[in-house]
Write a structure and sequence with these properties.
- This protein is mainly α.
- It has one domain (about 10-180).
- The chain is about 80% helix and about 0% strand.
- The protein contains 7 helices and no strands.
- Helix 1 packs antiparallel against helix 7 (about 155-180) and helix 4 (about 100-125) crosses helix 5 (about 130-135).
- The protein starts with 7 loop residues before the first helix and ends with a helix.
């Protein structure tokens, strides 16, 4: 996995996994509001592409400690968010409330910080391809947690999307197994 190269198995599994994500987004649902929701669906795809690019950039960065790299990533993201907030937000309506501040701090530091720390370790040990494929599991876990804790329902499109994602993961696993033997 260290000397990663794209070949037919990787391209096929990425394509199938991506189709599964598109099915989950379900761009043709509620056709009356298609254009209205198009910006949100495009933003989701753009976020996925940005995440993929970040994995590649993490791989190419010099070799500082994962903790320092995580700190720098979160600091850079915070600066970007402040700039966007200044441009399109309402800076005159700033207010400080302890509970939302503490919640935001723990959300950023504990969840995002821990995730980036482990992603950096994962990228260094297994490579970008493997780390990116682990992201295909996120919608499946999130969907299951939504059903269990939020009483959400699976639609047929979600089940089909999950199955397609798992097929993509299986193709990647089978391909890796063939390459290692």
């Amino acid at each position: 996995m260290k000397g990663e190269r794209f070949d037919w198995g990787i391209v096929l599994s990425v394509f199938i996994g991506f189709i599964g994500v598109v099915i989950l987004i379900n761009p043709f649902s509620n056709s009356g509001a298609f254009l209205e929701n198009l910006i949100y669906k495009c933003a989701t795809l753009l976020a996925s592409a940005s995440w993929s690019l970040s994995l590649i950039l993490i791989k190419r960065l010099p070799d500082p400690s994962p903790l320092r790299m995580t700190r720098n990533i979160l600091l850079a993201a915070s600066v970007e968010i402040v700039i966007v907030w200044l441009l399109i937000g309402h800076p005159t309506q700033i207010g400080f409330h302890l509970v939302p501040f503490v919640n935001a701090f723990f959300l950023g530091a504990l969840t995002s910080g821990v995730v980036y720390f482990f992603y950096i370790l994962l990228i260094r040990s297994s490579g970008v391809n493997f780390a990116s494929f682990s992201n295909y599991i996120v919608p499946i876990v999130a969907g299951i947690l939504g059903v269990v804790f939020l009483n959400e329902r699976f639609t047929l499109m979600e089940v089909v999307g999950f199955i397609v994602i798992v097929v993509g993961l299986c193709i990647q696993s089978y391909h890796d197994l063939l390459k290692s033997s």
